[in-house]
């Protein structure tokens, strides 16, 4: 609140005779004598009447009466002072004196108490309806002592204005205002109390008045002298405005009849703070601060403070002025989730305000006008969080006339509040429900759908459930908890009766509905995830009463468990709250449109379940769980766990998991029935029912067979997986239940990653270190793993290798027969590469043999299966599996030969030179040089190196192949050189091969030896003559190719290239002549490149 140093102007003019003169102390006696009639009357007048009305009603008011009215006009409760000076709620603040943490000690209310109790309040004076004083802030190591002057005006037990010299700017009262206010509340007898200053002035004669004014001017001449002179001039002027008015203003005389009686709220600071929080975009805790402001509005409403609606109006105006709204609309982006939730709370608060059961018609009309104005703004957020951007293709994809979203006006966050303005509280049945604990009718026998009482005579309330619950929320919010509770009980009893009738109805038509295989959605709106949160409202209302009852019973006060409260005999509010939550969570409801609405469904469901988990279950609650579980299973279209459900109903996985864990210790069979029924996810099933078209109120998907517009599908599938995992854990050791759960998983879960997670979970549970492995659960784990392999065999999955390795590990734990089985059926589970490089390799590893404790015979059988698999894979995919097959078959001659033959058969068509060179090197390494040579020649046939590929990765393979041929003998070298000449056009590579071949004798020693003892091969004879000619030809062709596009920066590199070419030319007996002719040709052909040719002449003549 901006606390201004200037005093506020007087509210009204005073000019009447007063009481007798004198001043004295005000305040009641601290004795225990009965309160006087004067005090009783004065207190009632001070609470309800503006002082002007008192003056107008009575010609003369005795001074003692005035004193008591003035005395009782100051607030007596610290609760409101606390509310206006801290975010924290609760009247208990006043009793707390000790600091409970650094944050709390900084709250103005806490600091104000500390200042008061440390004696920092002084010079307290009450003049009429005005309180003043000084509050001293003690010195700190960093700040000097500060004395703040504080002034407070009040009227009818409310503080109407405050000023403080501290200059603090905030929504709430500063600590100094708190300290002075609490001083007056706690120590009224220590406050000097005077009548309004106008009364004192009236008692003075002319001389006294002149002396009073002159002394006042003298004491404060620097501040008031200009104003005093101005007023004197105006008073002396006959025609001045001041002389046209009877009387004069008095800032201490209290409120006029026309003044609104409300606590001081600095509107400017509220607007500035909200604007600041919004500008921070959710950072720096701004979202939390805005939520605290909303809580403050609720606190004001609960205390029936008119500033609640006033403050919410200010907040809403700033929200509507947020520039991001227009930006998001323009850019087509959605607002953040946290910001969206703030708008939801804003709409809910307006719903509470317009449903105030005691608001005046003109006030509601004003709110309606304001709400319609906001509602009509183009950027006003929609209720479902959608601005048409979350479904970009749906509208265009629909046939003409398939939907009416284009013509139907969008519901905004204010639409429900606008609609609620038409609701009223005048219904006599409703009035009886909320006002009378004993409102029953045991003679009422109307058993129709809309009967006013149930068979027990307890009242029912038939209204759209979210609307009815909004009434409950409004009653709670406006400080009518008992009335809210009575209405909540009537609503819940109505839901329970409706549930029973639905069960009977379905049982009577069950055969017909199941025969048709159809279902329907009977609830147009789901209660969980609804913008008005009806189930959450009922649950909170009943739980609050339940907790207070527990506290009452502990204090030896009988809890409210009587039949007249609308409860069964012995039933508690806690039990009713739990049953209400179970009914809401189990309701079959359609998944709403839009990302935000769907996320809200999940979020509200999880929030409600979290609240339920805080409740300790006893026998009475378990009885309720059993009752609701039976209805869920047998409730047909009214239950989310009915036998057949609508294709796009909200799944029950999260709720069923909670029911399963709650019921398991008490009724395992029922728990499994619930969980297994909930496992389904029909929105992903192509054969799911598409809806009952026979009745108009049934909701049917506009495009029944399209892929669902479920933005939260991944979260839903993860919840389905969690439910399955919970069942697997619980079923450990029970083969029958494990088999049932496995079947459910295989039938209902469609995501390979989730099935893989379940397989891993089952494996971990089955192989816990503190017990022997559970072989049944291990088999379930393996079966799930096999399903994952089949699902991901033909699709890309980045975790595929991890999945394959895990499956082999799992099969190893199950036993040797499992490993043999997956190898026998490998083609349905693995790619050839996976089967050889991972499966067969792991199976034949020493670690697997040791883990399985195999004897020699078992080892051989397993190895044979692995080798058979390897050969099959090599046949199917020789390019990727041949080398692995050769490796796996090394210890079996026949298998090895078979694998080698597969390589030879595939070499001419299906294998690349890289693969063939790799296998050839492997053959040389294993001691098969001739086979390596054979494969190398086959590889050379696939190779093609152009003139400029002097860094090609295959060069090393070519050099290796030539070295291998050279080491085997002249015939092998003679056979491979024509292949080299045909495949390699790169001059530098050919010259390297040529040089190496001339260093040693073929077949005698390794190519890399520097010494030789045999006869070297002649360059004038085959096969080296052919290689030499090819090399010279390659240099000539490469030279011409390079000169075609050469640039000056490559000239020096080109000269070096020619130098290497000359070395090769000179290896021929007439090489010098050939090179000279070659250079001359270059000079002639490229004479235009003068600089380059000059360099050539300088180097080569």
What would you note in describing this structure?
The structure is a single chain. This protein has 1101 residues and is mostly helical. The strands form two sheets. The protein has a six-stranded mixed β-sheet, with helices on one face. Strands 1-8 form a two-stranded antiparallel ribbon. A hairpin with an 8-residue loop joins strand 4 (130-137) and strand 5. Helix 15 (337-354) packs across helix 20 (465-477) and helix 30 (752-766) runs antiparallel to helix 31 (775-792). The termini are far apart.
Give a quick precis of the structure.
The chain is mainly alpha-helical and 1101 residues long. Helices cover 57% and strands 4% of the residues.
**Distance between the terminal alpha carbons, to the nearest Å?**
98 Å
Ranges where pLDDT stays below 50 over 5 or more residues in a row are 1-10, 16-29, 89-103, 387-407, 553-564, 688-707, 1005-1013
Helix content: 55-70%
* Residue-averaged pLDDT: 82
How many strands appear in the DSSP assignment?
8
Radius of gyration: 47 Å
Q: How many H/I helical runs?
A: 47
- Strand composition percent: under 5%
Largest sheet: 6 strands, mixed
Question: Layout of SSEs?
Answer:
Blueprint: E1 13-14, E2 24-25, H1 37-48, H2 51-57, H3 63-72, H4 78-83, H5 102-105, H6 108-117, E3 121-127, E4 130-137, E5 146-155, E6 158-164, H7 175-186, E7 192-194, H8 197-202, H9 206-219, H10 221-236, E8 248-249, H11 267-279, H12 286-302, H13 307-320, H14 323-331, H15 337-354, H16 361-375, H17 394-397, H18 415-420, H19 428-435, H20 465-477, H21 481-516, H22 534-554, H23 573-585, H24 595-613, H25 619-634, H26 653-663, H27 668-678, H28 713-730, H29 735-748, H30 752-766, H31 775-792, H32 800-814, H33 816-824, H34 832-843, H35 846-852, H36 856-876, H37 878-888, H38 893-907, H39 913-925, H40 929-942, H41 955-968, H42 970-983, H43 987-997, H44 1024-1044, H45 1051-1065, H46 1071-1085, H47 1090-1100
């Amino acid at each position: 609140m901006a606390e201004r140093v200037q005093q506020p102007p007087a509210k009204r003019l005073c000019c009447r005779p007063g009481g007798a003169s004198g001043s004295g102390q005000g305040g009641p006696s601290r004795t225990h004598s009965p309160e006087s009639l004067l005090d009783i009357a004065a207190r009632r007048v001070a609470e309800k009447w503006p002082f002007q009305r008192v003056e107008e009603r009575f010609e003369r008011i005795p001074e003692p009466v005035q004193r008591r009215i003035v005395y009782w006009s100051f607030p007596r409760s610290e609760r409101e002072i606390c509310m206006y000076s801290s975010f924290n709620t609760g009247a208990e603040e006043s009793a707390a004196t000790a600091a409970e943490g650094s944050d709390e000690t900084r709250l103005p209310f806490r600091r104000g108490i500390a200042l008061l109790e440390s004696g920092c309040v002084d010079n307290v004076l009450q003049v009429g309806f005005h309180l003043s004083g000084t509050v001293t802030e003690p010195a700190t190591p960093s700040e000097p002592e500060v004395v703040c002057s504080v002034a407070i005006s009040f009227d009818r037990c409310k503080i109407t204005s405050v000023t403080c010299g501290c200059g603090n700017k905030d929504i709430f009262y500063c600590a100094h205002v708190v300290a002075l206010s609490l001083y007056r509340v706690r120590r009224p007898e220590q406050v000097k109390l005077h009548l309004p200053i106008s009364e004192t002035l009236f008692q003075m004669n002319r001389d006294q008045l002149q002396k009073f004014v002159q002394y006042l001017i003298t004491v404060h001449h620097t501040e008031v002298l200009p104003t005093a002179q101005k007023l004197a001039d105006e008073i002396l002027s006959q025609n001045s405005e001041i002389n046209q008015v009877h009387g004069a203003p008095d800032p201490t005389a209290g409120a006029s009849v026309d003044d609104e009686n409300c606590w001081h709220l600095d509107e400017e600071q509220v607007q500035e703070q909200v604007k600041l929080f919004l500008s921070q975009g959710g950072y720096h805790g701004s979202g939390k601060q805005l939520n605290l402001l909303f809580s403050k509005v609720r606190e004001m409403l609960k205390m029936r403070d008119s500033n609640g609606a006033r403050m919410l109006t200010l907040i809403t105006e700033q929200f509507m002025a947020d520039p991001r709204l227009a930006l998001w609309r323009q850019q087509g982006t959605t607002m953040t989730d946290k910001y969206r939730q703030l708008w939801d709370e804003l709409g809910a608060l307006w719903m509470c305000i317009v449903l105030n059961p005691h608001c005046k018609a003109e006030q509601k009309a004003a709110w309606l006008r304001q709400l319609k104005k906001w509602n009509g703004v183009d950027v006003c957020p929609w209720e479902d969080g959608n601005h048409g951007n979350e479904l970009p293709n749906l509208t265009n994809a629909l046939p003409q006339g398939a939907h009416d979203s284009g013509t139907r006006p969008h519901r905004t966050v204010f639409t429900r509040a606008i609609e609620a303005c038409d609701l009223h509280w005048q219904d006599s049945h409703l009035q009886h429900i909320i006002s009378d604990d004993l409102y029953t009718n045991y003679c009422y026998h109307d058993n129709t759908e809309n009967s006013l009482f149930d068979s027990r005579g307890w009242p029912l309330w038939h209204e759209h459930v979210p609307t009815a619950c909004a009434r409950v929320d409004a009653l709670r919010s406006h400080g009518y908890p008992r009335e809210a509770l009575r209405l909540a009980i009537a609503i819940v009893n109505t839901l329970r009766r409706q549930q029973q009738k639905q069960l009977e109805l379905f049982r009577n038509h069950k055969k017909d509905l199941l025969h048709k295989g159809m279902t329907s959605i009977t609830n147009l709106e789901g209660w969980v995830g609804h913008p008005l949160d009806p189930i959450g409202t009922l649950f909170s209302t009943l739980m609050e009463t339940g907790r207070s009852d527990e506290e009452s019973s502990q204090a030896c006060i009988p809890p409210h468990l009587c039949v007249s409260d609308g409860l069964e005999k012995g039933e508690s509010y806690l039990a009713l709250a739990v049953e209400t939550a179970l009914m809401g969570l189990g309701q079959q409801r359609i998944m709403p449109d839009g990302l935000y609405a769907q996320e809200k469904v999940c979020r509200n469901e999880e929030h409600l379940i979290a609240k339920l988990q805080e409740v300790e279950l006893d026998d009475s609650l378990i009885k309720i769980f059993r009752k609701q579980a039976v209805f869920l299973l047998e409730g047909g279209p009214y239950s989310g766990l009915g036998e057949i459900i609508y294709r796009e109903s909200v799944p029950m996985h999260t709720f069923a998991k909670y029911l399963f864990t709650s019921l398991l210790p008490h009724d395992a069979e029922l728990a499994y029935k619930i969980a297994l029924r909930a496992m389904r996810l029909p929105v992903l099933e192509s054969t799911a029912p598409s809806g009952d078209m026979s009745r108009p109120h049934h909701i049917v998907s506009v495009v029944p067979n399209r892929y669902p517009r479920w933005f939260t599908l991944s979260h839903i599938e993860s919840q389905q997986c969690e439910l399955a995992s919970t069942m697997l854990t619980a079923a450990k050791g029970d083969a029958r239940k494990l088999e049932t759960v496995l079947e459910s998983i295989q039938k209902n879960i469609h995501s390979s990653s989730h099935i893989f997670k379940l397989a891993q979970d089952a494996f971990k549970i089955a192989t816990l270190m503190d017990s022997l492995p559970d072989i049944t659960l291990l088999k379930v784990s393996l079966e799930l793993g096999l399903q994952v392999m089949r699902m991901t065999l033909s699709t890309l999955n980045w975790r595929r290798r991890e999945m394959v390795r895990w499956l082999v590990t799992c099969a190893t734990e199950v036993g040797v027969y499992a490993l043999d089985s997956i190898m026998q059926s490998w083609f349905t589970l693995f790619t050839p590469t996976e089967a050889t490089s991972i499966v067969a390799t792991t199976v034949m590893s020493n670690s697997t043999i040791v883990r399985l404790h195999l004897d020699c015979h078992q080892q051989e059988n397993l190895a044979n299966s692995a080798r058979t698999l390897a050969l099959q894979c090599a046949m199917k995919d020789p390019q990727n599996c041949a080398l692995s097959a050769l490796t796996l078959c090394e210890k079996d001659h026949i298998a090895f030969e078979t694998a080698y033959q597969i390589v030879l058969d595939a070499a001419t068509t299906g294998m690349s030179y890289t693969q063939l060179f790799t296998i050839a090197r492997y053959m040389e390494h294993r001691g098969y040089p001739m086979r390596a040579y054979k494969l190398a020649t086959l590889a050379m046939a696939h190779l093609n190196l152009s003139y400029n590929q002097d860094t090609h990765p295959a060069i090393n393979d070519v050099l290796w192949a030539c070295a291998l041929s050279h080491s085997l003998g002249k015939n092998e070298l003679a056979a491979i050189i024509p292949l080299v000449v045909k495949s390699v056009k790169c001059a530098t590579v050919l010259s390297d091969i040529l040089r190496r071949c001339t260093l040693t004798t073929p077949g005698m020693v390794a190519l890399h030896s520097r010494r030789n003892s045999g006869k070297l091969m002649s360059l004038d004879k085959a096969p080296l003559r052919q290689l030499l000619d090819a090399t010279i030809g390659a240099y000539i062709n490469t030279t011409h190719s390079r000169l075609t596009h050469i640039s000056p920066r490559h000239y020096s590199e080109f000269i070096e290239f020619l130098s290497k070419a000359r070395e090769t030319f000179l290896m021929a007996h007439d090489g010098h002549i050939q090179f000279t002719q070659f250079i001359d040709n270059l000079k002639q052909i490229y004479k235009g490149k003068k600089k380059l040719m000059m360099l050539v002449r300088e180097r080569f003549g």
